[in-house]
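@channel sequence for tomorrow's demo:
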Amino acid sequence: MQVLENFSLKSLNTFGVEAIAARYVAIEQENDLQLLFSDNQLKNYPRLVLGGGSNVLFTNDFRGLVIHIKIQGLKAEVQGDDILVTAGAGVVWNDLVNYCVDNEFAGIENLSLIPGSVGASPVQNIGAYGVELQDVFHSCRVFEISTGKIKIFNKEDCEFNYRDSLFKSSGKGLFIITEVTFKLSGIFKPNVSYGAITEELQKRGIDQPNIKELSQVISHIRVSKLPDPTTIGNAGSFFKNPVIPVSKFIQLQPRFPGIVHFPAAEGFVKISAGWLIEYCGWKGKVVGNTGTWKNQALVLVNHGDATGNEILSFSSTIIESVSSVFGIELEREVNIL
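structure tokens (generated this afternoon):
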């Protein structure tokens, strides 16, 4: 374990924005964290835990310690029809998905091709196409910074909510996830509740998809809508889908009959943020070095030399535009630093 100074983070965030960390360390095993936090010189540094860098926007240099989690490892334990799959926090999320699909461990195939690392998945409670992380979460190992102890958190401990968790709210900055265990199934029950999935299956002439076919369909849909971060800088969906009271939705629907919406908790409706942004005319817009993706208005992109502040300012313009038309305040899904 080596602490480096004045370390460029440009290759460690999927927006490809330049930012310099005053200190940087790569953590490749759990014990490294105990060693790191026993160093009195580093203990009180401002710190940032970084995984795949797929959900962060740097607007400044980071004048502290970046802790890059790179812990690897994959293993499975069969318990009847249930399979407990454990992955190191530094494992690439889609590598985990592919491992499960190849072994016919069902439950996360709808989360195919989501960028990022395993350790970040509970923090954000990632989700796509009718499945959320909390649906398959069993437990995680965490390093408690204040005590230096390892703890096990179950689903209830993590306080999952829509794109939210303990690790983003009351427990933010208190813990570092080192590995995650998922409760999957040996019995595959395809979730094709989203229309785009059904349409693509019909195009392929598939009535009853197997797990690999469903994963391939999900991946195809994502590729058709979302840009590859290795080709053009982006962090996937930049905004959360807003959840509004049914009463407000009833007011909006006659004025905007095409408004795309989904079921939510009782008394609420989830609205497609991408639809709202596209309706306001932002899809495919280029403003300076940034803009929205041509195939998905929900995705903000870096056209080459955008700064974090330029992207942040552009996102604020979109928020104001949507608010003025619909009276709905979009919330950023990406962490702004």
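heads up for whoever presents: The CA atoms of residues 106 and 187 lie 7 Å apart.
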